[in-house]
Amino acid sequence: SSGNNEVPTSFEVLHSALEEGENTIVLTVVDNAENETVESVVIELDKTAPEIEIPQLNTWYKEEFGTNLTYVEKNEIVEIYAWSSTTAADTTVPGNASNLVVEGLASPVAIAASAIKWELAQSAKNYLHIKVVDEVGNASYIHEEFGFDNVVPTGSIKFDRTISNTGNENAIIEYSDATSQVTHMMVGGDITNASADWETIAASRGVTLATGDGMKNLKVKFKDAAGNESDWIAAENQCELDTTAPSVTVTLFKADGTTTKPAVSAEAETVVKLAITDDMIGKRVEYRLFGDFVESDEAQWKELVLDAGTASASITI
After folding, report:
1. CA-to-CA distance for 193 and 210, rounded, in angstroms?
2. Which of 120, 134, 184, 200 has CA atoms 20 to 30 A from the CA of 70?
3. How many Å is the maximal CA-CA distance in the chain?
4. Nearest to 62 by CA among 174, 153, 197
5. Pairing, β 51-53 against β 67-72
6. In 3-state terms, what secondary structure has residue 119?
7. Residue 17 φ then ψ, to 5°
8. Distance of CA 273 to the CA centre of its chain
9. What is the tens place of the pLDDT at every residue in 252-299?
């Protein structure tokens, strides 16, 4: 060309003129002699943020944990940050968070506890935040709630009553955990139906005492939602299994209380002496006297306390 027409050396293409994905821009140059040159270039428009996900977190943790980040992105990932805070939708990457992207990084990406800054986790409610950025600046976020609890649960157990003649009794259970709540228990001791594994927490539980008369013990341990486990806790009381009936001897005396009354007697008044023996030393027994006599308050149940395994009573009817 002999003219002084200026040919631009750069062109501006508005994104609004492009569509998501690959776009072809064609440049046609014609000189004054109508010689024509055609050049083209492919431009890819990416306005879509990476697709990212992690496995659903547990509600509670008692120790450090990690997770795996899975992402889908056709272009290169250049930034991955993970951190924890008590803010639900935190998008501000803290200054001490490290970019986890390394050479050759591919999905899935292991997110370790050190990257989460676990030492910042508070008791109760926390959030794990992950930010992923592709090479053109599109960013995606994940915000997952988790709880932190490293305190062992506490509680107690006791027999509902302390004497049993059948062995089928009830245990009363109390428990507490300030953060994640008690979820499971194990019950053991001198019982035949001890827990084979963790069972759902309850305020009471039936127990079957081990065979053989004598004092029986009970124990319990607790686990909370974070997985913290208590040691075995001994029951606050014991229960005595007594399946042996008392031995009773009944002797009739004359009114003086010292002379044995004969089998045939003209005297209507009789002194009845009872000798009661049982293996429950120091415990109470109850007795009731009835028969072919004018009923009085002697026909009501009365109580005796055994001393050295024996108790006695003298009654006039």
Report:
1. 9
2. 120
3. 164
4. 153
5. antiparallel
6. helix
7. -90, -5
8. 60
9. 888 887 888 877 777 777 788 777 777 765 667 777 776 666 666 566
